[in-house]
Write a structure and sequence with these properties.
single chain; mainly alpha; 3 helices
Length: about 90
């Protein structure tokens, strides 16, 4: 059993930030010569992918919850003394 809910947006953001940190470390060590213009799109793209993953997981979770609620409440509602019962 999972101890917490999996958050793919946070995982993607973390991987993008690790890639940025690795690139900066390689640049600082002199193993790789990259300008800041390489890192800016990587940062923006990582955040965009993280936001997309968060949105997709939210939509899937809502759909799953709605399907579960619909399956649990498949019986027709009982009539009540509301406006529909008075007609």
């Amino acid at each position: 059993m999972l101890r917490h809910e999996f958050r793919p947006g946070r995982a993607v953001a973390g991987l993008a930030m690790l890639a940025l940190a690795g690139g900066y470390a390689a640049d600082a060590a002199g193993a790789w010569d990259a300008s800041w213009t390489f890192f800016a799109p990587l940062f923006a793209g990582g955040l965009w992918l993280a936001a997309t993953a968060t949105w997709v997981s939210y939509r899937l979770r809502r759909r799953r919850e709605a399907r579960k609620a619909s399956a649990e409440n498949s019986a027709a509602p009982a009539s009540s003394s509301g406006s529909q019962a008075m007609r």
